[in-house]
Amino acid sequence: EGWVCVRSGALTTAGHFRFKGIPWLHCAHRWPQGDLSCRMKVDDFEVGDMLGEGAFGTVCKATLRSTGKVYAMKVIEKVHAQRHGGLPQVKNEKDVLIRLDSHPNIVRLHSTFHDADHLYILLEYASGGELFGHIKRLGACHISCARWLTAELVNALEYMHSKGVLHRDLKPENILLDEDGHIKLVDFGSARQLGSEQQYTKFVGTAEYVSPEVLNDEEASEASDLWALGCIVFQMLSGTPPFRADSEYLTFKRIEELDFSFPDGFDGAAQDLVRELLQPEPVRRLGVGGEAGGYAMLKAHPFFVTGEPQLDFSLIHTLPPPPLVPP
């Protein structure tokens, strides 16, 4: 089923309208019964619990009445987003999700539509909740679970970077789990499309996962996402991010000084992986092309090739992950 672009209830080659200069593309798959998103409106859904809240709107659970299929619906108030300069960010997220439409560990965009007051982004629903909540509930993750989830995240990052996209806000809150326990990377509002003419803010992200070069007002790169990956691996296995402090200022200071330590019992191979990802020089981070060997070297790290269950990066999205349990 290919994408269908519609405007004003009819197929169009342009496939968009402009709201205050911002194109809003209606892209959707053909629905069962042959319906098209040109007829889609919020009343077609039973809108349920709120799943999350962002700067320009909320995300709710939404069930398509005609099929019973469940989605995550992001609802953006047009006036609020326009007043606070958020429309380019909203459009950027939509464009990024269209570019990243074919990876099992990245949330899928199903459709966008609008009414007089709101923009709607209809996304794949991940019923397993945020990885952050699971870490908090468990205290930390068992090594087998952390290894599997890290491998899926590596697959998602490799694909994303191959498509010229930087996430720039990787953290456990932006990693969801589906009903089978596989990860779904979400929240691309801060993402950057390499080669795009759009103006991007240099300093974005969440304090505990920001890389040293971004703190120094340098451009983010693939290496910046890999730094955040190192922080997430540390957090899955220890329960807290490596640079946590009582304030953002103190967190940034710890990042600049590379001030972190491993708790007792932290797996040796995992320690080495985290050290290789938390290199202060971006070009030396494991996974970066050139000196650091690219994703092939990252996937060959002992953290992934030792232990149980055995990992096959090309198949893990088709196999059942180990259960989420504490160490």
Can you characterise this structure?
The chain is α+β, with helices and mostly antiparallel strands and 327 residues long. It is built from 10 helices and 15 strands. It has a 5-stranded antiparallel β-sheet. It has a 3-stranded antiparallel β-sheet with strand order 2-1-5, with no helix packed on it. The longest helix has 20 residues, at 143-162. The protein is globular and about 55 Å long. Mean pLDDT is 87; it is low at 1-38.
In summary, what is this structure?
The chain is built from ten helices and 15 strands.
The CATH superfamily title of the largest domain? Transferase(Phosphotransferase) domain 1
Largest sheet: 5 strands, antiparallel
Q: Strand fraction band?
A: 15-25%
Structural class: alpha+beta
Mean pLDDT: 87
CATH architecture of the largest domain: Orthogonal Bundle
Query: So what's the CATH class of the largest domain?
Result: Mainly Alpha
Please report the distance between the alpha carbons of the first and last residues. 43 Å
CATH topology value of the largest domain? Transferase(Phosphotransferase), domain 1
Strand element count? 15
Order of helices and strands: EEEEEEEEHHEEEHHEEEEHHHHHH
What is the global morphology?
A: globular
Counted by DSSP, the helix tally is 10
Organism: Haptolina ericina
EC number: 2.7.11.1
GO molecular function, one term: protein serine/threonine kinase activity
Catalytic activity: L-threonyl-[protein] + ATP = O-phospho-L-threonyl-[protein] + ADP + H(+); L-seryl-[protein] + ATP = O-phospho-L-seryl-[protein] + ADP + H(+)
